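Friendly challenge for the regulars: who can give me the structure tokens for this chain first? No prize, just bragging rights.
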Amino acid sequence: MHRIDDLDKLILEQLLLDGRKSLVDIAKDCGVSSITIGKHFDKLKKEGIITGSTLQINYRHLGLNTVFTLNFRIRPDQSDEICQKIRRMKNLYILFQFQKFASAVFTLNNQEEMNSTKEELKKIRVISDLKTYLWLDIRNQRENLDVLYENARKSQNVTNLNSKEKINETKKVDELDIKLIDILSINSRMSFRDVSKQVDAAIDTISRRYERLRRNGTIRAIIQINPQKLGYQAGWVVGITFANEVSFKGAFEEYAKFKNCVFIIQTSGETDLILIFLIKNLEEFLEIQDKLMKISSIQILDSNITRLGNVYPYRREFISTI
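First reply, four minutes later:
Bragging rights claimed.
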């Protein structure tokens, strides 16, 4: 684990909230010179703590209205071979391999395509116990890390679909918007000058397009970090089923306060909510587990642990909708 000071924490927090925020603006917020911020920023990159930058995306605005998870059991001796085959499937967003099963997330146009995808997977004989979880709402709070300052948890950047600032959600993005999203998904801190050269459009045009997409809640820029260098060792995926009717908005707010809870998904299916935590050690894992088990409204708690990679968050993740 790398030691980071208070200024490093502030820089990481600010860029996890807005990946395109300038070092000059960060310096103003921190009350130090831009030269000082630049030195800390360069150090964080050199030490491999900041690994890149990407976009979070509202896939509904791109016409992909159906996001769902398929969990399935798979024979361990054929796991790698079958998972490689699944990774070649159309519109697969990401595939997680656990010890006894795998979990695939797809982004599709409609539920008809979802049913076709399920049928395609059923044809693979070594796959069994297929379960579907249709995503309804998402809270993506990648800045909610206890190594950063507490105020990161109070600064949620949520896509409020009822905001008067936004254009109609069904409004289609055009070809230039898609090109802009594709480029900034690889490097969301790329200058608009460099982007304009790649798409053959004026800098002002690129700037206006980006601001419209951002205000509309279609995209959000965010840096990527190596969580292992901040002491995080594992990802913990928790499925929650409630014993009775609950307010899902209230549940989102309650679980969002748990330390290192970075992703919350409301689903339709056997599980009501899926929570994702970053975990540093066994003691922290048991502390959060005990806290969840004491919540009376929870009927079933199902969980799985996975080893963390060296890039967090993933490229082109889902933007918050609640």
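The CA atoms of residues 60 and 148 lie 31 Å apart. The mean pLDDT is 88. Your move, everyone else.
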